[in-house]
């Protein structure tokens, strides 16, 4: 009796990243806070070498903790971009001291300038334009300045729900970029729906604002966590994407992933190469490891420093 010869079934090939998404995620950035960075044993296990890492400065965080986090990330080979929130900086001397500390201890040469989420300013500054007007970033050789963008508006600034004031501020910053040597870009609040983001980006270009846009994307997280952060951060109409998902009991307990919004934006970018969204900036609301893993699985990688924008 002949023995039956059973062939071992080949394992299915792993899914390859979508080429458009892979290209869109190149040189993505991610945000950390000192207290969350402390929980990461080794960033090199999570993030590609050369990744730009923003360090969020929350009110009450000592500048020494911010600088220590910047020093660690810089030593590990990352491009460090700390936040400079205008409303928690007391005065000109404080700002210059922060810049000196970052440069002297962590070789920081770039920063995200924003008003900050504080209602009452701690001192002389109310918005990022005032920080820029000090001339301190130019004086100390900062090579790159990013500013905040709000695809769905910002009701803390435009109380009537329009974008008149935030768009006017971006026009001013466009002018600043044209009269200085600073390399500038817009880093935005996160949103969950691609089409309004595309329309907002196009509207800026039509208004003569051609600063590159680094679009904010919320990383994978529990749905309840995302809804909480979205409400706290003033996310507008695209919040309905999460609310609709919350009403579907089959998806309620599943973690949210940004696959749909990233895929749609990537497809638009592939079809329109001059589209002014150039990079993805992740808010790791469900944890840095979870977000970094998702990015790697979808082809995210860091560009070489010479190619960074």
What is the gyration radius calculated from CA atoms? 21 Å
In whole angstroms, the N-to-C terminal distance is: 70 Å
Shape: globular
Main sheet makeup: 8 strands, parallel, barrel
The low-confidence runs, each spanning 5 or more residues with pLDDT under 50, are: 10-14, 304-309
> CATH architecture, please?
Alpha-Beta Barrel
Estimate the strand proportion.
Answer: 15-25%
| Helix content class | 25-40%
Q: What's the total helix number?
A: 12
Question: Class by helix and strand content?
Answer: alpha/beta
Q: Can you tell me the CATH topology?
A: TIM Barrel
* Total number of domains: 1
CATH class: Alpha Beta
Major sheet: arrangement of strands: 1-2-3-4-5-6-7-8
Order of helices and strands: HEHEHEHEHHEHEHEHHHEH
The pLDDT mean sits at 88
Number of strands: 8
Protein name: Methylenetetrahydrofolate reductase
InterPro entries: FAD-linked_oxidoreductase-like
Keywords: Oxidoreductase
GO molecular function: oxidoreductase activity
């Amino acid at each position: 009796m002949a023995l039956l010869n059973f062939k071992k079934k080949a394992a299915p090939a792993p899914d390859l990243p979508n080429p458009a998404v892979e290209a869109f995620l190149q040189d993505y950035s991610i945000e950390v806070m000192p207290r969350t960075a402390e929980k990461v044993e080794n960033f090199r296990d999570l993030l590609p070498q050369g990744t730009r890492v923003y360090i969020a400065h929350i009110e009450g965080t000592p500048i020494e903790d911010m600088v220590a986090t910047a020093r660690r990330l810089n030593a590990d080979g990352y491009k460090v971009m700390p936040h400079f929130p205008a409303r928690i900086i007391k005065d000109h001397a404080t700002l210059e001291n922060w810049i000196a500390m970052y440069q002297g201890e962590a070789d920081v040469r770039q920063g995200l300038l924003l008003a900050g989420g504080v209602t009452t300013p701690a001192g002389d500054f109310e918005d990022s334009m005032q920080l820029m007007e000090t001339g301190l970033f130019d004086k100390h050789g900062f090579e790159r300045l990013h500013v905040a963008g709000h695809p769905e508006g910002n009701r803390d600034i435009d109380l009537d729900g329009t974008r008149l004031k935030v768009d006017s501020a971006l026009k001013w910053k466009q002018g600043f970029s044209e009269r200085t040597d600073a390399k500038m870009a817009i880093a935005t609040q996160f949103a969950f729906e691609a089409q309004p983001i595309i329309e907002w980006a196009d509207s800026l270009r039509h208004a003569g604002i051609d600063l590159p846009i680094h679009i904010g994307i919320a990383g994978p997280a529990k749905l309840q966590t995302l809804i909480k952060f979205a409400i706290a951060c003033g996310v507008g109409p695209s919040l309905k994407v999460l609310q609709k998902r919350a009403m579907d009991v089959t998806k309620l307990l599943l973690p949210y992933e940004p696959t749909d919004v990233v895929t749609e934006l990537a497809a638009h970018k592939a079809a329109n190469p001059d589209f002014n969204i150039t990079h993805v900036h992740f808010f790791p609301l469900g944890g840095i490891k979870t977000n970094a893993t998702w990015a790697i699985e979808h082809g995210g990688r860091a560009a070489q420093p010479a190619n960074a924008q």
